[in-house]
Every structure is written in C-alpha cells, then in structure tokens.
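Tip: read the tokens left to right.
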C-alpha cells in the first residue's frame, strides 16, 4: 500500500491501556493518550525508563504486552512503510566503501550496499532527499570520511527518501558539537515545515531542541504520559523525572531552558 492510499487521519499515535514488557520485566504501563499528526514530539525519561522500548513498539519490532497501539490508524507491524527511522550511531558498521548516495538508496531498495540495484527513478528520488537536507555536495563521499553533522544529514535523508508520515529520531544530537547541533535543529524545523511530517525525537538534553518541540511523551514512575511541552518544561516535574534538582529559567527573549539547580 502506498502512502497516497493510506487512510487520512489526524492521529499519528493512539495508545489505549498499553503496557511494555521486556525480558519478563514490566517497563512501563498505563499509556492511554493520542498524539496528533503533524507535531514534533519529544520522548524523554531517565536511562532505563523505556524510551527505546517505546520506539521499538511504534516500529512494530516489539508487541504491546497489553492494550492497543495504533500508528496512523493501523497496527505498528502494518505501518512500517509509513515510518522513517534515524537510529543512534547511524554510520557505525558502514565500513569504508559505502557512500552517502548508497546509504540513501538503501532507504528505497532495502539492499545493504545499493550498488547497481537502483532504478533511475530511485536515484532521482534519492537526489531529492539529499537536496532536502542540503547534502548534495557530499553524496559521493564515503560515510567514514564525513563529520558527525554530515553523517546525520545523510541519515535523515535515508529516513525521508521513502516519504514517510512519521520520522523517528533517536538522540539526533548525540556526539555533535554545538554548531552541528544548531544546524541539525534548524534542519529539522525546516523539514517539518516543508514536508508536514510528524516527528518523534528521543532526547536526553532538551535545551537545544526545546524551540521546536510542541509536546512530549515522558516516562515517569513506571508510567507513560503525554502532554504539551509547556506543561512538561516544569521544574518540579523535571526534577522528579531526572532525579536531580532541575530549574527552568528563561533567556532575555523569554525562551525557556533547563539547568541544574544550585
């Protein structure tokens, strides 16, 4: 089924009494909320709270232990073609041979190296994805020679090339310097505006991404919650979430940011 044939829905994710179990252990429970389509949603929680488990459930890699989860009105296992995924440490294991264009074509062909296995239409589509992330000039370069920020652009292009409805990014700013973090955040904001794609972003450090988040799924006390980002950026809640004193301050322009309370 092509994306044009998918049912039109304003709900990206629908959780109904969902619980998550991994290795025989209850990770989180009581997830009952809907995530509207079209937003940029943070996924936050302390280490071990179940953020990766939640991603795997949305991707259809792990079933809900109880309850029902829908992705754009379908079971997760049926909705994989509507999801683009940018994992952590994207370029690890790519070796010395694979180029940027090969990695993006992989998002269409499903072949590991994509050499000689793509059509002219697929190459054109890959070129458009590279242009969208401003990576045309590095398309022929080996992934192993690219900077962290450049690799992340290729990863985003590979996730977007099949024109998904939902883009999942797992720690997209990890290991990037401040300039690259700023550039990737700006890129995500632009892609969101231009493509109207829903984004689900796992983040440990909220500060660089706060300007573009509109809501958050947060994992607290063994439960999964969903709220507008303005309600989540709260010192009391964040202190409970991370287990250390967190203060929410504001810049001169009125933008909120988190810092550890003294």
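Filled-in amino acids:
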């Amino acid at each position: 089924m092509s994306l044009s044939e998918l049912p039109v829905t304003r709900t990206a994710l629908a959780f109904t009494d969902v619980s998550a179990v991994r290795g025989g252990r209850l990770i989180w429970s009581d997830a009952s909320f809907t995530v509207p389509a079209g937003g940029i949603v943070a996924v936050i929680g302390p280490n071990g709270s179940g953020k990766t488990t939640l991603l795997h459930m949305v991707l259809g890699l792990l079933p809900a232990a109880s309850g029902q989860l829908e992705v754009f009105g379908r079971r997760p296992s049926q909705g994989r073609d509507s999801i683009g995924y940018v994992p952590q440490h994207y370029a690890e294991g790519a070796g010395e041979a694979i180029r940027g264009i090969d990695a993006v074509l992989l998002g269409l062909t499903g072949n590991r190296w994509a050499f000689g296995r793509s059509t002219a239409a697929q190459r054109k589509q890959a070129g458009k994805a590279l242009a969208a992330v401003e990576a045309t000039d590095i398309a022929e370069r080996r992934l192993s020679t690219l900077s962290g920020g450049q690799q992340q652009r290729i990863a985003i292009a590979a996730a977007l090339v099949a024109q998904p409805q939902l883009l999942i990014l797992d720690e997209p700013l990890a290991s990037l310097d401040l300039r690259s973090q700023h550039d990737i955040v700006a890129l995500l904001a632009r892609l969101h505006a231009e493509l109207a794609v829903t984004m689900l972003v796992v983040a440990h450090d909220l500060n660089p991404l706060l300007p573009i988040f509109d809501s958050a799924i947060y994992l607290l006390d063994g439960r999964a919650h969903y709220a507008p980002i303005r309600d989540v950026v709260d010192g009391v809640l964040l202190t409970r979430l991370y287990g250390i004193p967190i203060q929410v301050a504001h810049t001169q322009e009125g933008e909120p940011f988190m810092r550890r309370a003294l």
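Residues 217 and 226 are 4 Å apart (CA to CA). The longest helix spans residues 178-195.
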